[in-house]
Amino acid sequence: MDKYIIERRARVRLAWFKRCEEIENISQVCREFGVSRKTFYKWRPYYTREGLPGLKDGSKRPKSHPKTVPKEIWSAYREIASEKPLWTS
To answer: Are the beta carbons of 23 and 29 closer than 8 angstroms?
Structure first.
């Protein structure tokens, strides 16, 4: 996705929190920006902890995969494959 769009989304989220500091009414801010309170409260800890960098979209890529072969088994496989190439073809 375009870097500009990602930064734009973060700036819009930042505008929520700036407006909330001004009027101190979360429901009103959510109505003005057309977001649910659930969404506002989802992003709030990221903003309080990290500021603007916390408001950027994170990676959706999983941190691990359940079918990943452990490194020890993979290295043993590679060792056998190099010794006996006909077994692995």
So the answer is: yes
* pLDDT confidence tier of residue 62, bands split at 50, 70 and 90: confident
Give me the pLDDT at residue 6, please: 67
Rounded CA-CA distance 83/68 in Å is 24
Amino acid at 35: V
Contacts for 87 with CB less than 8 Å, ≥ 6 apart: 80, 81
Domain ranges of the chain: 1-58
Q: What torsion do the CA atoms of 10, 14, 15, 17 make, to the nearest 10 degrees?
A: 150
CB 78 within 8 A of CB 84: no
